[in-house]
Design brief:
This protein is about 55% helix and about 10% strand. It is of the alpha+beta class. The longest helix has 18 residues, at about 205-220.
Length: about 425
């Protein structure tokens, strides 16, 4: 399909959502208000009053434990908006256009967006509001494809797993990159060209780089990928001289963010007791089972790469002995979620396996894991050694930064047992 065909298909599917028209209008109106410093809270509130469901979400969030220190029985939209702030309000409006009610309850996504906006605001010398808005919309193309073009997105990810470079795979599948797809949606919402150009990547390289880096820094920080000082190095070179100032201003606020948004505490020490593990095979089943119990998972499996094949070397959970004997992943086989995790060195989370393509799992996996509903695959790379951590649930389980942070910490612990 050409980019025109894909765009037309996307817009046709969007139009079938009855509530989307009013929500799109809210997005356009709110962004216009946010870019005008002469507008106050009342102007932000007025476009939302006609949307009962969105108004309820705003009031519920303002009265939630996350804002308990600042709110006491908030009943008016004006008070709620004053407490939440413009970035949080915009997040709710944007999210409502593409997310389910369950997804809107995910505090991790809200926390990541608010923190990304903070990074962008501190880093930007000019166009502060445009960069902050673009940060909130950075993944718009991926979000819209996931919501309205899931088959295309699955085909794209399998092509990447098969070795096709990401941008090439996106162009083959969508006729354009996902960033450009997001730009098409933003243009449909009549957003200013300055913001659209940051979203689709065609704009000022410094602003585009700042939006991307702010997004990566916030998600990386909240997922435990590194310290703030290390992650700030991802900002464009033009921001290098401001990094000490940004660090000094943001570092004291991190605890406030974690407390305010109820971020899960880091994994407990037993999740990292790896000093005595001589090899992946030596990882005690009790340590793996402890992880399962903490996170309500059904199975966890550790795969090790041996002669172009991933084989189960440790694990715990239902049917583990049989799975250890029968499960393996051939690198030369058709691309699957396991190949994607290994080749792209990134996590693969499947929330509802029943809605996924049949080739998302290697041959034989469907029969052996017939009760699986959600799963995640994380890569392990240590020198020349490679492996995978696989975890699944038998009920629908949503991805969150807290869960991914715990999985990454556990994966990092397991990786210590892999020798060069």
């Amino acid at each position: 399909m050409t980019e025109t065909d894909v765009t037309q298909l996307l817009f046709e599917r969007m139009q079938k959502q009855p509530a989307l028209a009013s929500l799109e209008s809210n997005v356009s109106s709110m962004i216009s208000q946010l870019r005008d410093p002469t507008k106050g809270t009342r102007e932000l509130v007025n476009p939302l009053l006609s949307d009962v469901a969105l108004s309820q979400r705003v009031l519920r969030l303002a009265n939630s434990p996350m804002y308990s220190a600042m709110s006491q029985g908030v009943k008016s939209m004006t008070s709620a908006v004053s407490i939440l702030g413009s970035e949080v309000l915009l997040h709710l409006v944007l999210s409502a256009t593409v997310m389910s009610a369950a997804d809107l309850e995910d505090d991790d996504a809200l926390m990541a967006n608010v923190l990304a906006g903070e990074v962008a605001r501190k880093a930007a010398v000019r166009n502060h509001e445009d960069v902050c808005i673009a940060v909130l919309l950075y993944d718009l193309g991926v979000i819209m494809a996931s919501s309205y073009l899931p088959d295309h997105l699955a085909a794209c990810r399998l092509a990447i797993a098969g070795g096709t470079p990401p941008e090439e795979a996106e162009r083959q599948t969508f006729g354009m990159t996902l960033r450009e797809l997001g730009g098409r949606v933003a243009a449909r919402w009549r957003l200013p060209r300055e913001i659209v150009s940051v979203i689709d990547g065609s704009g000022d390289p410094e602003l585009v780089g700042m939006a991307r880096a702010s997004h990566e820094i916030a998600n990386g920080l909240l997922a435990g990928e590194g310290k703030l000082e290390q992650l700030l190095s991802r900002l464009p070179a033009s921001c290098a001289q401001r990094i000490p100032t940004i660090l000094a201003e943001l570092e004291p606020r991190l605890d406030v963010f974690r407390h305010r948004f109820g971020q899960a505490a880091p994994a407990s020490p037993e999740d990292a007791e790896v000093s005595s593990w001589e090899s992946p095979e030596a990882i005690p089943e009790s340590a793996l089972r402890n992880f399962l119990d903490k996170h309500g998972a059904a199975r966890i499996l550790i795969f090790r790469l041996r002669e172009n094949r991933f084989e189960v070397c440790a694990g715990a959970g239902e049917s583990y002995p049989k799975l250890r004997q029968k499960l393996h992943v051939d690198l030369a086989g058709a691309p699957t979620a396991f190949h994607l995790a290994h080749r792209s060195n990134s996590e693969v989370f499947i929330e509802d396996l029943a809605k996924s393509a049949t080739n998302v799992l290697p041959p034989g996996f469907w029969q052996l894991l017939s009760s699986t509903c959600s799963l995640v695959v994380l890569p392990i790379k240590k020198g020349s050694a490679a492996g995978l951590v696989y975890c699944d649930w038998e009920s629908k389980h949503q991805s969150s930064l807290g869960l991914l942070a715990a999985l990454r910490l556990f994966r990092n612990s397991v990786a210590q047992a892999f020798k060069h």
